[in-house]
């Protein structure tokens, strides 16, 4: 049974839960980087801790939008895996490992092709190891979609999904309201900078319908996804992208044991991401907490050195510890 998540009095606010972890990062264990070349000429970078050749299981980590192995939640999970002697690897979405990817396209919330490539490589290279996966936010949506698409043919043995925006349209609208607009501003600013860099080195010229001068006019996820994400990745427009890339409808198709964790006060989402029991397969364990913010879940410690619920619950579920 899982331990009930209860935030301390000083961390009940969802924005404290969401923002404080960014400023209280733990030190990550030493990581080794590996590059996987893709058939389309691009690449994926993997960051490893532990020895995959001797591991009986490998924890595959999918970060969120504009995240990396340096993200606070990834650092903490890597640290705890290292402490427990577990091998773990961070799958970086294209262009998120600190080096720009080579193509005009990058990654998106429904892109299961790249994680499928990574997982196939892991299966072939380390056949003795079972594969577990943890997906955060956008990476969680990708993971849900992968599990639902592959069903019984999934390479993953067990999975955990945290703070996933399973209804992309609803989440985009949520981020246009109130304090949540600050999160949107921060993330869209990062996306615009990457786009500007691709214009500068001419990677993206003639592949999008906007000009370099128009990049600065993209203020919301809806605008960015309509003008950039959708056309670059083969969707008819933002609505087509959100409908086809959202993970919600795949919850009922998942065969592997999968834990999905949400907070009701997540400032990135609304009630549309919360499934009913009949919308989840029997393989899905759904946990909705009243507090926790977005990839927060601080459950103690102090504001300068918070303690977190997530890593304990993730490893407990993946390792089937009762």
Q: Specify the CATH architecture of the largest domain.
A: 3-Layer(aba) Sandwich
CATH superfamily of the largest domain: Alpha/Beta hydrolase fold, catalytic domain
Query: What's the average pLDDT?
Result: 95
Oligomeric form: single chain
- Unreliable stretches, pLDDT < 50, 5 or more residues? none
Distance between the amino and carboxyl termini: 6 Å
Largest sheet: 8 strands, mixed
Query: What's the order of the H and E elements?
Result: HEEEHEHEHEHHHHEEEEH
Could you give the count of β-strands?
10
What is the topology?
Elements: H1 14-23, E1 32-37, E2 43-49, E3 57-62, H2 72-83, E4 87-91, H3 113-125, E5 130-136, H4 138-150, E6 158-162, H5 168-174, H6 180-200, H7 221-232, H8 238-245, E7 258-263, E8 284-289, E9 298-301, E10 306-308, H9 310-318
Parallel strand pairs: 3-4, 3-5, 5-6, 6-7, 7-8
Antiparallel strand pairs: 1-2, 2-4, 9-10
């Amino acid at each position: 049974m899982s331990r009930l998540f209860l935030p301390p009095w000083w961390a009940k606010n969802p924005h404290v839960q969401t923002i404080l972890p960014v400023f209280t990062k733990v030190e990550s264990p030493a990581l080794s980087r590996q590059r996987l070349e893709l058939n389309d000429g691009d690449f994926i970078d993997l960051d490893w801790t532990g020895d995959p050749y001797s591991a009986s299981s490998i924890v595959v980590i999918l970060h969120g939008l504009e995240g990396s192995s340096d993200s606070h939640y990834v650092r903490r999970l890597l640290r705890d895996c290292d402490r427990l002697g577990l091998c773990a690897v961070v799958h970086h979405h294209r262009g998120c490992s600190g080096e720009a990817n080579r193509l005009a396209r990058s990654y998106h919330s429904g892109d299961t092709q790249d994680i499928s490539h990574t997982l196939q490589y892991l299966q072939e290279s380390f056949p003795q190891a079972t594969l577990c996966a943890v997906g955060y936010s956008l990476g969680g949506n990708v993971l849900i979609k992968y599990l639902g698409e592959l069903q019984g043919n999934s390479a993953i043995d067990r999975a955990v999904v945290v703070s996933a925006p399973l209804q992309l349209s609803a989440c985009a609208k949520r981020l246009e309201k109130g304090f949540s607009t600050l999160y949107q501003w921060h993330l869209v600013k990062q996306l615009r900078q990457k786009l500007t860099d691709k214009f500068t080195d001419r990677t993206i010229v003639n592949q999008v319908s906007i000009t370099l001068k128009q990049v600065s006019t993209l203020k919301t996820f809806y605008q960015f996804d309509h003008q950039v994400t959708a056309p670059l990745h083969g969707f008819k427009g933002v609505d087509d992208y959100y409908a086809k890339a959202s993970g919600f409808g795949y919850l009922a198709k998942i065969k592997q044991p999968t834990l999905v964790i949400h907070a009701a006060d997540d400032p990135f989402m609304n009630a549309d991401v919360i499934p009913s029991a009949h919308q989840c397969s029997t393989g899905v364990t759904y946990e909705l907490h009243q507090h926790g913010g977005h990839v927060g879940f601080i459950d103690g410690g102090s504001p300068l050195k918070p303690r977190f619920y997530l890593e304990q619950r993730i490893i407990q579920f993946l390792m089937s510890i009762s």
